[in-house]
Amino acid sequence: MLNIYTATTNDFPVIQKIANKTWPATFGAILSPEQISYMLEMMYSTAALTEQVTKKGHHFLLVKDETNDLGYASYELNYKGLSKTKIHKIYLLPEAQGKGVGKLLMKTITAIAKDNQNTALSLNVNRDNSAFQFYKNVGFEQVGEENIDIGDGFLMEDYIMEKQLA
Question: Which of 74, 87, 138, 151 could form an SS bridge with 123, CB 3.0 to 4.6 Å?
Answer without folding.
Answer: 87
